[in-house]
Write a structure and sequence with these properties.
The protein is of the alpha+beta class and about 200 residues long. The chain has a single domain (about 1-200), classed as Sandwich (Jelly Rolls). It is about 15% helix and about 35% strand. The strands form 3 sheets. A 7-stranded antiparallel sheet has the order 1-2-11-8-13-6-3, covered by helices on one side. A hairpin with a 2-residue loop joins strand 1 (about 1-5) and strand 2 (about 10). The N and C termini lie far apart (about 30 Å). The model has no long low-confidence stretch (mean pLDDT about 100). Bound molecules: succinic acid (SIN) and fe (ii) ion. Fe (ii) ion (FE2) binds near residues 121, 123 and 177.
Length: about 200
């Protein structure tokens, strides 16, 4: 089911559910080449969410700032290629919200454990804001915080579960968003974790 969140933004409930096992098995090969790690913010704090990437560029944070890097700084190698099932889910979800020509070149993979969260932020390290953001939830359920274009707007709390996809673009491209602290739980496919795939056109 498609639920409109704002102009250019929607929650696609269950959109990727039938492919969640395929997404998770493709993720295993990514993680064996580019293991999850806790990046450090420019302010010097270790992020509680573990991250990796696939695609032509990966989102990286370190004491010098945020950037998209074609190379994984931890391995010195290019990030693993984006699997076809990742690309297909992302482009099809974008099209379902009206973004027909989405060509993601970067996928940030976030891994949450109970208690971890991402505070409200905008995704604005990409070169071109005409492409949407596509965010796929896998594993444990969470509460996605969908705010407005100003940090001061109180976010709407959106429950997301395995296979749900949130898309925001167009007039919503720069909305503030985040994830509430992950509740305790156990998921048959991911154990005590939630995985989020965020697709961007970064370059
Ligand atoms: C993010 O904003 O990078 C993560 C969103 C999510 O985990 O749902
Ligand atoms: Fe984000």
């Amino acid at each position: 089911m498609k639920l409109r969140l704002a102009d250019g933004a929607a929650l696609l409930q269950g959109f990727a559910a039938a492919r969640s096992d395929n997404l998770l098995s493709a993720l295993q090969s990514i993680v064996s080449a580019a293991p999850f790690r806790h990046m450090v913010t420019p302010g010097g704090f270790r992020m509680s969410v573990a991250m990796t990437n696939c695609g032509h560029a990966g989102w990286v944070s370190d004491p010098s700032g945020y950037r998209y890097d074609p190379v994984d700084p931890n391995t010195g190698q290019p990030w693993p290629a984006m699997p076809a099932v990742f690309f297909d889910v992302a482009t099809q979800a974008a099209a379902a919200v009206g973004f027909e020509n989405f060509e993601p070149d970067a996928c940030l993979v976030n891994r949450y454990e109970p208690g971890t969260r991402i505070s409200l932020h905008q995704d604005k390290d990409e070169r071109d804001f005409t492409a949407p953001i596509v965010s796929v939830s896998l594993g444990l359920p969470a509460v996605f915080l969908f705010g407005g274009l100003k940090r001061s707007e109180r976010p709407v709390r959106i429950p997301v579960k395995n296979g749900d996809v949130v898309v925001w673009g167009g007039p919503s491209r720069l909305v503030y968003h985040g994830v509430a602290p992950l509740p305790e739980g156990e998921h048959p496919a991911t154990g005590r974790t939630r995985i989020n795939l965020t697709f961007r056109k970064a370059l």
